Amino acid sequence: MATEVTPYGSGSQDKKQQVTTMFDKIAPIYDLLNGLLSLNTDTYWRRRTIKSLADSSPKTLLDIATGTADLAIEAHKQLNPNKIVALDISPKMIELAKKKITKKELAGIITAEVGDSENLRFEDGSFDAVTVSFGVRNFGDLKQGLAEIYRVLDDKGTLAVLEFSKPTIFPFRQIFNFYFKYILPFVGKMTSKDPKAYKYLYESVQVFPDYEDFAIILKEIGFKSVSWTPLTLGICTIYLASKD
Fold this sequence. Notes:
Blueprint: H1 15-26, H2 30-38, H3 41-51, E1 60-64, H4 70-79, E2 83-88, H5 91-103, E3 110-114, E4 127-133, H6 142-152, E5 153-164, H7 172-191, H8 197-207, H9 212-221, E6 224-231, E7 236-242
Parallel strand pairs: 1-2, 1-4, 2-3, 4-5
Antiparallel strand pairs: 5-7, 6-7
Helix pairs in contact: 3-4, 7-8
């Protein structure tokens, strides 16, 4: 398999543009499919990710690839920071995120906006913590996106990444691969407006540098104290890293 995959293959759009198009298409059913296809385990994964930041008690937090802002809302619930910026490259996702934030009466604390993870508008050292859930796989340039995160983090700031990974335990690895390769794309095709989106999900997980390989990349960027914790037998993994 190629070292990089895109939702729609080669064409006039680069990966970043294709990812934007893909998420705009699936935005209306995104939350429903997340819960359905993960059997609602995604809620537990987000809770664990935010809990991993409890000791650092961040007061300012940037949530990149926020989707419909579920991780940002969980961050408010657990950490109660003064300010959260929820950012996503998909305008349709941000529309839904704003509605959810307003409904929960959190508009004074959580700000949702369209933005590019590889070209953040924020000044150096703007945030105590940065989170990314199921988003780093979709960066057009992984190292550039991580370098931007490093730049906007405070000197004592922490990065928490939640990302799919490849299980290693037999026979769960084989069951997981079958589900991700065949069942999940089929369900996605039947329920979403973009049947290629969930095929891309499987392919992008296969080529993503997970576990130690991702930790090495984080260290190359300059992050310190890099650690990772697999969840649910390795379906996904929490990566923690500090700037100092």
